[in-house]
């Protein structure tokens, strides 16, 4: 960190409490301040260039310098910088975006409800589910199912559905009766001699047993990511979703697909639901919907969800939920332009093609002494770090090895993210094959450097 008292780094430490940061350590090491972006690269305020292999926070699909998004925001700012969607009011951009999202959804949807972040979309889904159960005269049908290592956000309700220790430690959880089940990670949770299909069957049987134990009439919905992102880029085992959805249908339980990371091309399909053949009742969308140039998110709901909400709001006189900036005209305009670019430039198909190069490149590192598993699909991946391949263990302190490799990678000019002892990769959809090669070479160098530092 710069020792100059008035440096940007020093002022940041003095006044800024950072998200997902060790506040005490931050006072010692200070921040990496990013000054500008160009394509898949960002530059710090000292001019050093980094390949942003995480798209910021899994989200800047179009890179850091897409002029069409800036122009879309500017045009809308000049015409109508703000309006809301409360009390029978709206505006053209949000109406156009609602139509676009509902009609492009991979399964029939009825309505779009707009929020500002993935967490708000998840909170909204939870409130709608409770509202719906009450409207149906089933006030006991409120329990929610999630998977361990799932990530569904950090607002006060969404955080309770997230199943990661850092999101719960020292926080109170207010959502009652959350049913948490085994993470669908075959590498960590599969039993000796078990196939992926057998693992998937066991998880489906676990789900069925949990529903029966809770009482089927008390379970309202399962929230799930098509592919679990922040929990470690966990690709579900073969036949998993087919079997899970059969259990949910058996007990008339809603499925909420958290598409916040998977949506808009990340898995090689427009939505993760298409990649894994999910048929959800609700879909939470955010991040790449606007390439994160401006906060935006949406919740899509089908007729099964909308019908009871419609009737109950008619009885009460309103649906008493909404956000000041939900469906913001500038966010709507930027989101529409983002989707246009993804479609016009064929970025979903491109994610599959260039993503194959990324997956092959990272898998070429599988024989490295520090690599336990390489997993992912298209343009999302993770490397599980170990020091003992057979035992699947890393250093004694969880996260220590991940932090070491991630620091060496950043020093080499590549930004990744350590998820305990796994490194995540989620580069912009516009990344080229040459830039993928640059990324993989940087990862190999960081692994080699760390291995030497460990004295191996």
UniProtKB/TrEMBL annotation:
Keywords: Aminotransferase, Pyridoxal phosphate, Transferase. It holds the Pfam family Aminotran_3. One of its GO terms (molecular function) is transaminase activity. Its cofactor is pyridoxal 5'-phosphate. The keyword Oxidoreductase does not apply. It comes from the Bacteria. Transmembrane segments: none annotated. Coiled coil: none annotated. Belongs to the class-III pyridoxal-phosphate-dependent aminotransferase family. This is Aspartate aminotransferase family protein. It comes from Aquamicrobium zhengzhouense.
């Amino acid at each position: 960190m710069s020792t100059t008292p008035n440096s940007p780094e020093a002022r940041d430490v003095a006044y800024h409490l950072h998200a997902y940061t060790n506040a005490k350590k931050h006072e010692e090491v200070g921040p990496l301040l990013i000054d500008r972006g160009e394509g898949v690269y960002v530059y710090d305020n000292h001019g050093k260039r980094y390949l942003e292999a995480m798209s910021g926070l899994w989200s800047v699909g179009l890179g850091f310098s897409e002029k069409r998004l800036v122009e879309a925001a500017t045009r809308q700012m000049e015409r109508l910088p703000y309006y809301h969607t409360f009390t029978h009011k709206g505006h053209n951009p949000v109406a156009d975006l609602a139509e676009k999202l509902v009609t492009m959804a991979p399964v029939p949807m009825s309505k779009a409800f707009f929020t500002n972040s993935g967490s708000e979309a998840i909170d909204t889904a939870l409130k709608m589910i409770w509202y719906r159960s009450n409207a149906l005269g089933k006030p006991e049908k409120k329990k929610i199912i999630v998977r361990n290592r799932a990530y569904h956000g950090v607002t006060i309700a969404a955080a309770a559905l997230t199943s990661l220790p850092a999101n719960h430690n020292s926080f109170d959880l207010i959502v009652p009766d959350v049913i948490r089940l085994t993470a669908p990670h075959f590498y960590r949770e599969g039993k000796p001699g078990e196939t992926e299909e057998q693992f998937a069957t066991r998880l489906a049987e676990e789900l069925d047993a949990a529903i029966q134990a809770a009482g089927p009439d008390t379970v309202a919905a399962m929230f799930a990511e098509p592919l679990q992102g922040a929990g470690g880029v966990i690709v579900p085992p073969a036949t998993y979703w087919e079997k899970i959805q059969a259990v949910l249908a058996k007990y008339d339980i809603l499925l909420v697909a958290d598409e916040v990371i998977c949506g808009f091309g990340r898995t090689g399909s427009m939505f993760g639901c298409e990649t894994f053949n999910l048929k959800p009742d609700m879909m939470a969308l955010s991040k790449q919907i606007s390439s994160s140039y401006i906060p935006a998110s949406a919740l899509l709901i089908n007729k099964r969800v909308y019908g009871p909400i419609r009737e109950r709001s008619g009885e009460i006189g309103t649906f008493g939920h909404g956000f000041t900036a939900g469906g913001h005209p500038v966010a709507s305009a930027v989101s529409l332009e983002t989707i246009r670019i993804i479609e016009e430039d064929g970025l979903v198909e491109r994610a599959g093609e260039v993503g194959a190069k990324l997956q092959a490149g990272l898998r070429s590192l599988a024989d490295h002494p520090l690599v336990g598993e390489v997993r992912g699909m298209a343009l999302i991946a993770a490397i599980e770090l170990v020091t003992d391949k057979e035992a699947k263990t890393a250093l004694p302190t969880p996260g220590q090895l991940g932090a070491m490799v991630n620091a060496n990678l950043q020093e080499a000019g590549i930004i990744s993210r350590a998820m305990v002892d796994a490194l995540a990769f989620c580069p912009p959809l516009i990344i080229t094959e040459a830039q993928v090669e640059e990324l993989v070479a940087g990862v190999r160098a960081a692994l080699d450097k760390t291995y030497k530092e460990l004295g191996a």
